[in-house]
Queue: 2 jobs
Job 1
Amino acid sequence: MNNWMITGRLTKDPQTIGTQTGNLLTKIYIAVRRDFRDKQTNEYESDFYLFKAFGKTADYIYKHVKKGDLVEIQGRPTNNNFEKDGEKIYRDDYIIQSISRLSAKKEVN
């Protein structure tokens, strides 16, 4: 079993589309702060991930989660390997199994 739990902020608003089978697909981009700082700038570095959600989870994200929100995601990686123009493409996708909105984006006055 290969499950992830990750906490981060959305870098843009969710992107939701309908699939060919009639399901909803929502994509979100998450920035996750690393535990250490850059030695030269003394700023935290971040990793960036694309997560996908389907069905009711996709609908919840579309309605309740926005750019800048802090979320906790439980999910799993999956291989999405395909051929394009005669070349084999290897890509990992991250599928959301559950999501919790921890806080909304902080508004700056």
Note: The radius of gyration is 16 Å.
Job 2
Amino acid sequence: MNKFFAYIFVTISIVGFCFYKNSFIDFDKIAEESELKGRTFNNKPTEFITPAGIKVWLLEDRSVDLISVSFSFNRAGTAYDDEDKKGVSLITAQMLDGGTKDYDYKAYHDLLDINGIYIGFGTDNDYFNGFMTSPTINIHSNETNISTSNNKKLAFDILKKVLYEPRLDESFLKTLQKQFEVLVKTQKENPKTELSLQFTKELFKNHPYSRTIDDMAKDVASLEVSDIKNFITDSFVKDNLIISVAGNISKDELIDYIDEVFGSLEQTNGRVQLNKPDIDYSSEPVIIQRDTAQVISSFALEGVKRTDSNFYPLYIANHIFGGSGLTSRISVASREKEGLTYGIYTYLDAEELAPLIIGGFSCVPENYEKVKKILKKQMKKFASKGVTKKELLNAKKYLLASYNLRFKSTLELSKMLTQMQKYKLGLDFLQKRNNYVENVTLAEVNKAAAQYYNKQPKEVVIGTIK
């Protein structure tokens, strides 16, 4: 996904799922030709605790003159916003992009641009996330009163000022509130957006995961700067902080930077982990009648958590069934052979509280029932007969070769280290991941196919249903 909530106009990402997967990309060719496919991680990340009591994962890479930091505050996402302050986490992420006490919006972004530094914030259901990337080469800035001998120090100094001395300009807040108001008013002009919002509501009902920008609109409009300040104080605390660093920096050097930036945070925010949402998969499809050229469907099946023993068997099974673009079972059956759909897919969302298999397709209205029939038939066949040895071999080949494509930058690598911490995958995950894929047996994949695809999916549809 792109920078999560880097700008207010992608707010919709938080309340729905990735609606469209590009099925026209030749993923196999990209994986085969990429130089990254052969990348190996010979060293595990180093885990250490700073004098201020902050746990850090560091993966040193001396081959690049860059450093990237990924950090997340748990129990600080949109699902944890107070009932009368819904959307405060999202707006806070935007407000932190507005500068610092010493720098207004333009001066702040000019400073970052001149020095090649990126600092960004975003939010999802559970986490408030931050990212920083900087060159490590020495840069002396004559246009800042921040004392610096190198870019690393400058980057951490700026990050500290953003976290502890954000500008929080009232006029900037008003601008963001107006942008949010426009977004709420225009969201239903796009059928995909309307479907995404309704899909989220139907899945999670009264659980905080069901919150959409519609639900946040009234509270966002009444937010004051003091609410942003209170959110920062309550949410940016040590006991829910995850930090990962990748790039050209040593442990000894990093310790001082981490404690300088994060060491003064409060210890705890006292928020309790949410309960799992109770999802009713058995209910009838929800149909949003709308005069559109296409019918668009989103559907969900029960999935597995990232640490579940069934994760890799289901991961491979899903790749074969709906995750491999044009070559997937459902794409071949409905698009390549019959020409009934513009695109059809499934993917895993392996979140801790609500693991799901998410799918979707689009087609002209007269083909909707035909595509549904094919999808149902393919799911039944997949569950009863499973996959072939050749399909398993091809899936493994792709999943093994393509894995390193996600590590095209130090920022992506630091984000991955943070995900490893969130999902408790272990320090040796980068070394073991391909073994996990390689060791999955045909019997395990077919067992997962039988267990998870032999069910009626939860579906929400928008369009003219005939």
Note: The CA atoms of residues 381 and 454 lie 9 Å apart.
